[in-house]
Write a structure and sequence with these properties.
By secondary structure, the protein is of the alpha/beta class. It has a four-stranded antiparallel beta sheet with strand order 1-2-4-3. Helix 20 packs parallel to helix 24. The longest helix is centred in the N-terminal third of the chain and has 32 residues. The protein is globular and about 70 Å long.
């Protein structure tokens, strides 16, 4: 057995192996042979989901050759990584016989199904369990956790962020499943065309909202590469436009970079920016008046950024409603009518109800007397300080602001939001009115099964525009959506008829996608390869959907 060492080099090897296994399981690491690693989730919606793996050491070596890092792990490094994962309590060997046995069978006890959360927690556990001697003698600086192109340092705020995601995943998963199953069955009597028309909605990129990210303390923690990947996957799961508020370009670094990187999609209307004012100049003038007292915090409203935006020529989405007034009225109404705690129950946020009730009159007063001041967490700062509000109470009111902002932009355009984001921002998934048709976990599986994931990550913005403007792309999206609807109905009927049928709806949908969307194709490297593949998938799905309809009739 390898000597138990917990140095930084071994840690990086173990993290890399765990990350590659999870990327493969999530369909984000492509290999030529899926039969060499079998996996099964257990307790996947509990706080410590378990992942059973059957594979070989050679295949684990091969996996590390497929990631973005240089050089694959050697046989010795793979073995040592597995031993160390076992030493710190993540890996349990399930084999009856170990010596001379080529097949590996083990269970990973994780903290989430999300890759970067597990890597963060592994980093923490590693440091906690590392022998004191090793800690004292190590002269190497602590390595940051690698996450594709970005990294985040482990700290107390980040650990709390990870714990928040655990709670949110459990709540939103059950809420969305219960609500949507009933809706699907209710709507299923309508025609395919009407059904698709109902599902067809623009997607609000709510996870770019700085108020949301700041309220939950994650704005400076999130890897930008994951946010960009979520935006890209959304674009490849809809033919309707995506949209966000104009203010985000000036308030959110992620939105600003996406605007710069994907400018052709903004110019062609595939991503639009919502604007109530008649011109960007008028918008900037109003914002400068709103934020003059906090000019340093909103510096992009006071430089020449707006001029560069105008010169870029993006497509605007006219907004009728004054979002500030909408948010103000909704919060006041919720507080006055005792409806403010509904969101808290969904998110399991700890609150002091007595303290909140005592603050309500002052919060309402701040809202009603704000004049032209923006409705942000800063609006309540003086009240928080004067009344010595607790952190939980501040989080409660900040959450109500963000919730109503998100809801305002959904209602304004009869839009929806994506769920199952890589970045873990699932706090307001209960506002999604089209679950699971914009659930990114399913779309990752779709493109993984088709072998397209690496390709759509590489397309430049001009190629994405070409793809989204082809009739083939719309036909493909429609057939996938209708396939999901049929699969849900099939799942629901099986569940009703068999009380012992306990499988998760999402797992069942993923399984159906893997079975029916396996398209054999050569290595894809061009736009034409992608279009050929989705055309094959469309024809196959049309046939499958037709069979569903025949069974229904």
């Amino acid at each position: 057995m390898p000597r138990a060492t917990f140095g930084s080099q071994v840690k990086e090897q173990a993290k890399r192996l765990l990350e590659d296994i999870l990327l493969y399981v999530n369909g984000e690491l492509d290999t030529y042979d899926e039969s060499k690693l079998e996996f099964k989730w257990q307790d996947e919606y509990l706080e410590r989901p378990k992942l059973s793996i059957i594979t070989t050491r050679r295949f684990l070596e091969y996996l590390t050759a497929k990631d973005v890092k240089e050089d694959q792990l050697t046989a010795r490094q793979v073995r040592e990584s597995l031993y160390r994962l076992k030493d710190i309590g993540i890996l349990t060997d399930q084999r009856f016989k170990t010596k001379g046995y080529e097949v590996l069978y083990f269970t990973l006890t994780l903290w989430s199904k999300r890759v970067f959360i597990n890597i963060e927690r592994l980093n923490q556990e590693w440091e906690n369990r590392k022998p004191t001697k090793s800690q004292n003698s190590s002269t190497e600086s602590q390595t940051e956790v690698s996450l594709s192109e970005s990294s985040i340092n482990l700290n107390a705020n980040n650990i709390e962020f990870v714990n928040q995601i655990h709670r949110v995943e459990k709540i939103t998963k059950s809420f969305n499943e219960d609500r949507t199953l009933a809706n699907i069955i209710h709507q299923y009597s309508i025609s395919k065309e009407l059904f698709l028309e109902h599902i067809s909605r623009p997607v609000y990129l709510h996870f770019l909202d700085r108020e949301l990210l700041t309220s939950f303390g994650v704005y400076d923690l999130l890897p930008e590469s994951l946010i960009k990947e979520d935006v890209r996957l959304i674009l490849f799961s809809i033919y309707e436009p995506a949209y966000f508020s104009t203010s985000l370009i000036f308030e959110n670094k992620f939105a600003r970079n996406i605007f710069q990187d994907l400018l052709p999609l903004f110019k062609t209307g595939h991503i639009q920016i919502a604007l109530k004012e008649h011109s960007l100049y008028e918008f900037i003038a109003s914002k400068q008046e709103q934020y003059f007292h906090v000019k340093q915090q909103y510096s992009f409203y006071f430089d020449d950024t707006w001029k560069r935006v105008v010169e870029s020529g993006p497509c605007y989405l006219h907004k009728e409603t004054d979002t500030g007034i909408f948010v103000e009225n909704e919060i006041v109404s919720d507080l006055e009518n005792n409806r403010a705690y509904d969101s808290v129950k969904r998110l399991e946020i700890r609150i002091n109800k007595k303290e909140i009730d005592a603050l309500n009159p002052y919060i309402i007063e701040s809202l009603r007397e704000r004049k032209k001041t923006a409705v942000t967490r800063l609006l309540f700062s003086n009240t928080y300080e004067e009344k010595q509000a607790s952190t939980e109470t501040r989080s409660f009111f900040n959450m109500k602001i963000t919730e109503n902002y998100v809801n305002a932009y959904i209602l304004e355009y009869s839009g929806t939001i994506a769920t199952s984001l890589s970045v873990g921002i699932e706090h307001f998934s209960y506002l999604c009115n089209t679950f699971p048709f914009h659930h990114l976990r399913l779309w990752r599986q779709v493109y993984h099964s088709l072998g397209c994931l690496p390709l759509i990550r590489r397309f430049n913005p001009e190629e994405i525009v070409i793809i989204k403007e082809t009739p083939d792309f719309q036909n493909f999206i429609d057939e996938v959506r209708f396939f999901i609807a049929n699969a849900i109905r099939n799942y629901y009927l099986n569940t009703i008829n068999h009380s012992s049928y306990q499988r998760s709806m999402l797992n069942d949908l993923e399984r159906a996608i893997r079975i029916h969307l396996k398209i054999s194709s050569s290595q894809m490297s061009r736009l034409s390869d992608y279009l050929d593949t989705i055309n094959k998938a469309t024809e196959k799905l049309k046939y499958i959907n037709q069979r569903f309809l025949q069974k229904r009739n």
